[in-house]
Amino acid sequence: MPFPIKVCVVCSEEFELKPDKPGFANRCPECSVPEESDQSGQQRMDAIGRKNQSEVNEARRRAMRDLLYRKDS
Questions:
Q1: Using H for helix, E for strand and C for coil, what is the string for the chain?
Q2: pLDDT tens per residue, range 9-57
Q3: Is 72 exposed, middle or buried (0-12, 13-18, 19+ CB in 10 A)?
Q4: Cα–Cα distance between 12 and 47 in angstroms, integer?
Q5: Could you give the CA distance from residue 18 to residue 31 in angstroms, rounded to a whole number?
Q6: Residues 6 or more apart whose Cβ sits within 8 Å of residue 26
């Protein structure tokens, strides 16, 4: 049984959609390869950045808790 022929939405080339193909089903294998900038999306944080992030998260949790559990007076 032949594999279905698809058209890539990025480059408009035809390709065979094979099982266990990495990436998106509507993109050819060349266009499905992740770019270098996508993998470097996670940046390393120093101690100050982690502290700032934890303070922001704590304030967010406190605000959500106050909104959810406040007594209507």
A1: CCCCEEECCCCCCEEECCCCCCCCCCCCHHHHCCCHHHHCCCCCCCHHHHHHHHHHHHHHHHHHHHHHHCCCC
A2: 989 999 888 888 777 888 888 888 775 554 445 567 788 989 999 999 9
A3: exposed
A4: 46
A5: 15
A6: 6, 8, 9
